[in-house]
Amino acid sequence: MKKGINQWAFPGNATFRDIFTLAAKYGFAGVELCPD
């Protein structure tokens, strides 16, 4: 399992649900979020 990925690795229009779903699908254990 991969450790984590930053939210900026995803398209700008991706929802948090999309980000978490894709990260889990590809084996990432977590997502670093950078709220504006």
UniProtKB/TrEMBL annotation:
Query: Sorted alphabetically, which SUPFAM superfamilies does this protein's record hold?
Result: Xylose isomerase-like
* Keyword list, A-Z: Isomerase
Q: Which GO terms describe its molecular function?
A: isomerase activity
Name of the protein in question: Sugar phosphate isomerase/epimerase
Q: Which organism is it from?
A: Candidatus Caldatribacterium saccharofermentans
Taxonomic lineage is: Bacteria, Pseudomonadati, Atribacterota, Atribacteria, Atribacterales
